[in-house]
Sequence to fold (678 residues):
Amino acid sequence: MEKGKRHISLKDLAQELGVSISTVSRALNNHPDISPNVTRKVQKLAAEMNYSPNPLAMGLLKQATRMIGVIVPDLVTHFYSSIISGIEHIAEEKGYYILIASSNESLKKEIKAVENLMKTRVEGLIVCLSQETKTYEHFDRLINNHIPLVFFDRVCRIDKVPSVVVDNVDAAQKITSHFCKNGFQRIAYIAGPDHLNISQQRTQGYLSGLKKCGLEFRSELLVKCNMSTLDATKVTAALLELSIRPDAIFGINDTVAFAAMKEIKRRGLRIPEDVALVGFTDEFHSTVVDPALTSITHPTFEIGQEAARLFFSRIENPDAEPIQKVLKTKLVIRKSSVR
Amino acid sequence: MEKGKRHISLKDLAQELGVSISTVSRALNNHPDISPNVTRKVQKLAAEMNYSPNPLAMGLLKQATRMIGVIVPDLVTHFYSSIISGIEHIAEEKGYYILIASSNESLKKEIKAVENLMKTRVEGLIVCLSQETKTYEHFDRLINNHIPLVFFDRVCRIDKVPSVVVDNVDAAQKITSHFCKNGFQRIAYIAGPDHLNISQQRTQGYLSGLKKCGLEFRSELLVKCNMSTLDATKVTAALLELSIRPDAIFGINDTVAFAAMKEIKRRGLRIPEDVALVGFTDEFHSTVVDPALTSITHPTFEIGQEAARLFFSRIENPDAEPIQKVLKTKLVIRKSSVR
DNA sequence: TTGAAAGCGCTAACAG
DNA sequence: CTGTTAGCGCTTTCAA
Fold:
């Protein structure tokens, strides 16, 4: 069995049976014109010889590769892996494959990923913006060419592109209220870059949460970081060194929450006695740390599924108004935030 | 720009320039026969019109899709995601894409994944066996058909298939010696299923480690689990309930180590004072738990890179003797194992 | 130096 | 009911 003959083709079947290629093709597709006899024979042989249609040939013919490109900021955090699982789940049902690329939180790599994926003729893209992304020409090009596109979590152009997000305002508000109910008064928030929708919305929820509880907003308690461990550690340190330090902190995501936790402990402060802590993380990580971290858990798998569903409805109905799915998060209360 | 004309083809370029398709093709490939003039003109227009060759057409012609199938037991742990990153890194250099499938630790899904990936005409497979996999017909078929195959971490058929593993014997021995040097006497080991090479080898390292330190092997301290959190919790509980309980435990992987940690803490025992703990995990998880977990860290990214390299040398030289790359692990000592 | 034609695997319009 | 033909985008003889 040498190279080049690993897969059998319609031709092989046709030769074997002494009929034409088109007859075989029709029989395999249950075309009504073909006699039941022939159909049966063809399908039997195809099964025996383990025939499977060549997707390259199909793709070339139909101009459809049944591939979706997926771009995520990174591949190694649970958040994205789990979303990818969700996407894959729906894609598989539809007989689609996904091609995964990571932007590594870099705009340059994101642009490159878009280009590369388009070169491979994926039918469209499902994307979470990189942290650096503030310009959108690379997506506008797709939009103008009517190439199916869906954003999730970190999104843009929502008037033109379907998207899946969680209710970040609500989530941040839940956290603030929770702190408040538990008697915390000086609630700090470590935010991300301003241009990211998730950061803006969580800030908004933080502010409205404070107001709802009748707490005054103090600008020194709202700090920004670039969501790296290093930067998060630095801003946490700054918070803890305030003349009157916060008695509660919430971090915008996993990385930030864990960095904060380490820094608080490193300084010999106790959680939650000295400083309470809440993050946005997943089930697994939250329970493995000590103290177990109260956190907002994202419905990651569902986010992926929903994004894929939006993608397919886009393929089927390209001209429909783009919709935005907003999923609810859950606040899971653990030790890190209750005295 | 309606559907079906998103990409421009050689034909488009040829028409625009009033030359034949073959001339365009040659010019683009810098064929020496073509006049420098024409070559220049063609390449200029191609660049302007943003031409990129259709990989489907190429694949059909060359019977090579430039795609590699990757099958991992799961997508959501750092270990595999990071290995995938490594594979992707090398694949990208070579202009290859990877198609990822997860077996979810199930043999049935693994077989299905092999089938599906082969149907998409990937050029070969890079695989880590599922936990359930004890039979290998689905891989033998590939081997017999000379389809490039590489295994990593959990491997089989190593006389026929190149593979990448870590030195598990050495790693387990390191752990045992480390415990011993720190004065621990009753060292327990939570192993995985017998048919997995990683489990066998680590058991071997555990045993030789004990011997080297002059410690006697006690059968009640060597327990097996199926590497699920549930099962790991159960066997940890059993260990802790022994009439004379172990003063040190090492767990075969992340899941087991964390489950053990939780169970130890749940019973009010202190780590490392009452029971020391060591695991096989990655940097991130090990430092985030409390106490920080001494652990063997895998060179995950490199494992992926190495696997991809083996894959390509397989493609280039299909008949070479398959080799096995053995990578070294590192024991990173943290609080969980030193008194 | 260039063009025409065949063929990779498949479907579909057109003829019988 | 079945075969012939053209064509998806590309490379590569073969001819000119």
Remarks:
- Residues 19-23, 26, 33-35, 38, 57, 59-63 of chain A lie near DNA strand D (CB under 10 Å from a C1').
- Chain A touches chain B through 46 residues (CB under 8 Å).
- Chain A has a mean pLDDT of 92.
